[in-house]
Amino acid sequence: MFRRIRSNRDPRDTLYSELKKEFSVYADKGSRFSQELAAKYPRLLFCLMTALLLTSALLAILLHPKMVSQEKPKAMPQSEMLNNGFDNILAAGAALKTTIHLRRQVDSITAKQVLNKSDSITLVRDLDSLQHIRLTLPH
């Protein structure tokens, strides 16, 4: 089923060595050109390097978003935090009570063998209400 593939490739040949063989001519030309350019125009290269550094520093300062101290949100008093938590508990309890009532109604409608038009409308309305309750409650 599986046969061993034999290769006559030299194991010392790697991807890097093959790429080096192929492109070393161009790399050497580029290296020689850059060395000649640096020897011929050192002052120009120094000025260009300095200008690029200054431009980079200027852009970093100008384009950086301003560090604006954001106003701290006002701390809610402890009693207000407790009231909000208690209100959330009461809302969740009311939603649970409504959910239980709607589920019982849906179960009783779906238990029927034949549904009439009003049953269908009630079922759709109850399922929409259940979906709305599920989406409005925090998780």
Structure notes:
With 139 residues, the protein is mostly helical. Helices cover 73% and strands 0% of the residues. It is built from four helices and no strands. The longest helix has 33 residues, at 78-110. It starts with 14 loop residues before the first helix and ends with a helix.
What attributes characterize this protein structure?
mainly alpha, 139 residues, 4 helices
Task: Note the topology.
Elements: H1 15-40, H2 42-63, H3 78-110, H4 117-136
Helix pairs in contact: 3-4
Short description:
With 139 residues, this protein is mainly α.
Biggest pleated sheet: none
Mean pLDDT: 85
Could you spell the SSE succession in H and E letters?
Answer: HHHH
What proportion strand? under 5%
The helix content, as a percent range, equals: over 70%
The total beta strand count reads 0
Number of helices: 4
Task: Give the overall shape.
Answer: elongated
From the helix content, strand content and strand pairing, which structural class follows?
Answer: mainly alpha
Question: Any low-confidence stretches, pLDDT <50, length ≥5?
Answer: none
* End-to-end distance: 56 Å
Rg result: 38 Å
